[in-house]
Amino acid sequence: MTGRDGIFAGEDPFQLAQSWLDEAAKTEVNDANAIALATVDADGLPDVRTVLLKAIEADAFVFYTNYESAKGRQLTAHPQAAFVMHWKSLRRQIRVRGHVAPESAAASDAYFATRALQSRIGAWASQQSRPLESREVLMERVATFGAEFGENPPRPEYWGGFRITPLQIEFWADGAFRLHDRFQWARESLGAPWNVKRLYP
């Protein structure tokens, strides 16, 4: 663990990740909490897309989506995932690999209630990842659900959070001449102690 000081210091990887995200929020132009989320489909073919990380908790990373979307179906069938969060302004990134489980209904309800009204209506209107005949059809669905629910749409049952509980978290910072700094936190199972090691760049 030689040299794990400065921006790498700390004994809790979740707190360290939160501190990096808080710093990035001051410098990134848009969406400092964007992550590239990787899953696999039924044939084992990798899939990746950008989503917004909504919480770093004591032992998990949380994001929200349509459970019937491609990523929702993939995560339900194969509840493991990886993501990378990269900040060009800081020249840093965090990589995470681990197990996935649905967020509780209560937590999903609470987060859904904080979203903008049009985003809540959009969750009802969008049949995410499925074919769409035209933009006009989508906007008609938005108008229909907006009229039905008014100012207080409930959370759809098919929409909610996922929790990624990691087995590995890697913190990376850019170095001169590509001699980067990398520290990997790894554990054999959930709840096991972390082992931290420096990696070659």
TrEMBL record:
Function in brief: Catalyzes the oxidation of either pyridoxine 5'-phosphate (PNP) or pyridoxamine 5'-phosphate (PMP) into pyridoxal 5'-phosphate (PLP).
Residues holding substrate: 54, 111, 115, 119, 178-180
Species this protein is from: Ketogulonicigenium robustum
Oligomeric and partner information: Homodimer.
Alphabetical list of PANTHER family matching this protein: PYRIDOXINE-5'-PHOSPHATE OXIDASE (PTHR10851:SF0), PYRIDOXINE-5-PHOSPHATE OXIDASE (PTHR10851)
Domain Pyridoxamine 5'-phosphate oxidase N-terminal: 21-139
Name of the top EC class for this enzyme: oxidoreductase
GO molecular function annotations of the record: FMN binding; pyridoxamine phosphate oxidase activity
Stored SUPFAM superfamilies: FMN-binding split barrel
A Gene Ontology biological process term: pyridoxine biosynthetic process
Name listed for the protein in its UniProt record: Pyridoxine/pyridoxamine 5'-phosphate oxidase
Catalytic activity: pyridoxine 5'-phosphate + O2 = pyridoxal 5'-phosphate + H2O2; pyridoxamine 5'-phosphate + O2 + H2O = pyridoxal 5'-phosphate + H2O2 + NH4(+)
Ranges where the Pyridoxine 5'-phosphate oxidase dimerisation C-terminal domain occurs: 159-201
Pathway membership, UniProt: Cofactor metabolism; pyridoxal 5'-phosphate salvage; pyridoxal 5'-phosphate from pyridoxamine 5'-phosphate: step 1/1; Cofactor metabolism; pyridoxal 5'-phosphate salvage; pyridoxal 5'-phosphate from pyridoxine 5'-phosphate: step 1/1
Residues in the signal sequence: none
UniProt similarity note: Belongs to the pyridoxamine 5'-phosphate oxidase family.
Required cofactor(s): FMN
One Pfam family recorded for the sequence: PNPOx_N
